[in-house]
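User: Quick sanity check before I run a bigger batch. Here is a single chain. Can you write out its predicted 3D structure?
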Amino acid sequence: MLYIGCHLSSSKGFLHMGKEARSIGANTFQFFTRNPRGGSAKSFDAEDAAAYCAFAEKEGIGSVIAHAPYTLNACAADEGLREFAVNTMRDDLFRLSHIPGCLYNFHPGSHVKQGMERGIELIAETLNAVLPEAKGTTVLLETMAGKGSEVGGKFEELRAIIDRVELPEKLGVCLDSCHVFDGGYDIVNDLEGVLNEFDRIIGLDKLKAIHLNDSKNLYGTKKDRHACLGEGNIGLDALMKLVNHSALRGLPIGLETPNDLAGYAREIALVKSLYRG
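Assistant: Done. Predicted structure follows.
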């Protein structure tokens, strides 16, 4: 089964997102839990969440991906920023507990001159503080491009976080095609090798979602700039090999390409037309 969707605005609530997703041919979607460049969140509406769940069951919408705000840094040097990360994640997980099977994706963080090892330790501490609140939600570490002091640009870094977490069964990984390509994993010429490496280091059973994006950058440049499908340096053929890979079937796929709603509708239709189901 192909579950394909895009990033939608959460400003009008869950039910509106569900209806908007179906209007463009999507059967999953991703959304920010709150202001992506800030920290504020609208008040929680339990009735809206319940109405969405009924709609999603009727319409066959699969697991959706909630995305933590970009301002969240679980390994910040400042204790106040780490406390903000814990409080934000706890609040988000409370809200998401009303959406069965939801996935909660976040950028692991930037260690900012503390060193990779310290960054990994602090991310694990944050996760150990919040994962007990993950009632039916799987928290996802996103693969990163490795720019600057980002944690998560290498599979080994994600593995090190997982190894330090007390409830690893509540933790998974979201593979971002642009990020791994920019980070030095050659999914164009050696997809099988990349997936084998992921399986050896992390385990494909931990892979729970995919961000499907082309890249404006050349391979291994560690810059992280998304492009529309087929308009970047990964290319449509390589992206569809990822979508059609037997080991990844059934995973929710979220488009984060630079598009408006009509553009997302075209890309969803394109992926569907090339899917070998």
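The two ends are 7 Å apart (CA to CA).

User: Great, the batch can go ahead then.
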